[in-house]
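[Automated response] Your request has been received and processed.

Submitted sequence:
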Amino acid sequence: MFDSLSEKLQGIIKKASGNAELTQENMNDALREIRRSLLEADVNLKVVKAFITSIREKAEGEKVLQSVSPAQQLTKIVNDELTEILGKYNSPVDIEGYPATIMMLGLQGSGKTTTSAKLALKLKKSGKNPLMVACDVHRPAAINQLKTLGKQIGVEVFSIDECKDITQIANKSIDFAKQNGYNVVILDTAGRLQIDTDMMAEIMILDKIISPKEKLLVIDSMTGQEAVNVAQDFDAQIGITGVILTKLDGDSRGGAALSVVQCSGKPIKLVGMGEKLSELQDFHPDRMAQRILGMGDVVSLVEKAQEVFDENQAKEFEKKMQKAEFSFNDFLKLQKQMKAFGSIGNLLSMIPGVNISKDDKDMISFESEKQLKKIEVFISSMTPKERDNPNLLDASRKKRIAQGSGLGIETVNEYVKQFEQMRKMMKGMSDLKKNFKGGMPNLMRGMGNLSKMGGGFQGNKPKTPKGFSKKGMRKFR
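Generated structure:
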């Protein structure tokens, strides 16, 4: 996410650290490079001009403090401006009313139906009782897709067989919601083209009749500047209330996110951060700006940890760790929870002070995933008793596991050895419950030690995969 832009901006700021003070000359050099970086990131030209002008004005009017370095000054200025163009404040989805109605809009192929399900799941987790409504009567199998997604997340889907009148479907769905206790109605409308006047007219009629609380435009962030045109066109005809950016985790440039708010005047309310239905997050401009500049995002990391980690299971892990009874089954459970954080690269970008290039992040993710899959094969080759009691693993059992997993006896011995070392380390951990509640840094240090099972817990040293530099690998290690 924003990897290319993030690397360049961090590089520019790092270069500024070599200056004794901010002068007009070195500031012009920095601004020139920032302008080039933003344009390469496919940011709208008007936004770039306004961004550079504002930074220049703030830099010239900034009081020089002896205790602050030029790089720190420039970081603060750029961070403030990034926050500004990203929308400045978090804009939550309005779900007031009974039922609150949300109309999902977007071009064909923007991921609107999947995003509708992601939003329904997010609302369900927050305590709401959502109802999804199949208003896409034009695309074949669209209704079946929504029903399939609804089953996956346990959310009801309302539809009327053979009906092509979306206003009738929407009206009856609202009545159904009122009668059955659904407090949020999500209307999944058909994807359309900007030039498709008939379909745009259809959605405009639905808007006037239903008067939805929210009209959320789903945009593929990979479209770059085209996102601006889409947002402006839909807003001019429908009057959108906000934007949901999908595939933000795969957008290395960031042009859409950095342009759409300023050009459309509408906030980014939610962002899709992965393919999983749980990967839809509230958008916080200040946090995103910090992540772009390599400053991390501890608040989002803590929020994700509170969502992912089960406190009752943490208590169980705590008791086992104190007695050195942590088993391979427990490790698999913990690994499953860690996977819920998302990709390793995304997790690293949320930790302050971890300035790693995109290539290194890709390498780390690649190697970690590969090693964890090997470990799963290794553990799966054990009997249930062996997984629950690692002390049973004698020479003959290890030999059988090595043959069953195809990993080799040397690798199996190394895995068992490092697992034992990890168990001893866990026994010395003071209070996991306290770490979980009181200090995310302490928790992450503990999780970092556990990750030796995926990174340091490797057995034979892996070869550098194609596309990754050995220099980058040495730097990380």
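Summary generated for your ticket: The longest helix spans residues 358-380. The CA atoms of residues 313 and 333 lie 9 Å apart.
If you did not submit this request, please reply to this message.
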